[in-house]
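ERR on first pass: missing label on line 2. Operator R.T. fixed the label and resubmitted. Corrected input:
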Amino acid sequence: MRVFKLMLFLNLILLSSLLSAETPKKDPTRALIGVRYFSQTMGNVHQNASRYSQVLTTISCNHPVKILKITSKDGKDLTSLGDPNWTFVGVGPYEGYIMTSYLNEKKNSCLEEEYSKFFDGLELDINDLYYWARLYDQYVQDKSKVRQ
Amino acid sequence: MKRIICFSFLFLVTTVFGNETKESPAEVTPDIIDFSSIKDLIKKDGLEGELKKQQVEKQQVLDKKKLSDMKRYNVPNADEFWNLFSELWLVKNATKLKWDFHKPEFDLEKSFISLLETQGHYEKKIKILLLDSTEVIHAALPTNDKEYIFLLSLPFIRTLDLSKVEISLILFEDYLRARRGYFKNYVTSKELEAYLGSNFNGKPFNKKLIDSHLLKMSNVLYEKGFNFQEQFELTQEMDTALKSDLKIWNTYLTLLEKIDQLTKTNSLYKKYSQIYPSPELQLNWLRPKPSRF
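pass 2 clean. output:
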């Protein structure tokens, strides 16, 4: 519970920085493709498809995100920008980019949900939550293949 | 006289009727139903069974809620704990390690995964975190066997001008060290092991235990490092693993020579031999012994 309160506070701080930031322009051709769930402990929604781009909001595991698609008048997809590593999403009032590999179609088994009191006991402050989300921006990840 | 007879008669009447009413209380309180008389009827209707069923269901709901409330106080088991704990340590040491910085895409993960697969290590998830400092040169943090977290100093890579293969070999050495559980053994304690997988419902959360182990982890990575025996065993394992490909085995040897030279000449890396003793010894262990003839 404490973690969620801190998350809310973090979002409020990020909102102030958002006021100066430009979000993708509203377009009548935008469409909701589906809903996915964030699969990591913490993560950020970025203004652009880059891990170093401005952070719009921070989300925690199992947070539902709307997958959005914006197409231009001539039918061009303006959201994916040809990079499959990033997905254009809507989270609350924010619209931005999130790493595709961090999204799941189904709800995940999240440690902070399963061990909520343990997480509360860690007494993570706003700084910790910020860095935990940044950690998942900075990780370079991969997985070795299944034995043939 | 007549009066006396009249009173006596009235007294007699009240006494007789008064006794009769006491003997049959059912007639006084006609609202109370004697269920014993309709017990068989209720049994036939199955109402008693229904009541019991409802009571059992209610109890089950209460038990389930109680159990779910209790589960919230569970401590992660060892398999889940170490990854979480290592990330917590990274979060708490973010400013010292300087991992939150803008860096180029090296595609290190691809070359390292390729090496892992060549060596027959499948289905291993890797997370590499580059550091903009020399506080930790390279390390694999304690995790479970499915997922590994690697730290790698970017200034170190740049100073030695390491190739992707050489970087992969450093990561592979860390990977084997983590698999052997050396790091975890240094950090863990009997108290922590007993705490993992337990439940602290009704007790305060043991934050001191977590904090003290975070300090132990810092001590291993910043000060204490690993011992000679561990380094020897690890070098032997690297030797065996890489010997099938002489090209890569030679690359490993060259890499150790480079590191040995750096730690002896650059004061920024003087702690390296203290943490991983020592590149010079590793070279001695690896180099073929001169023949007597």
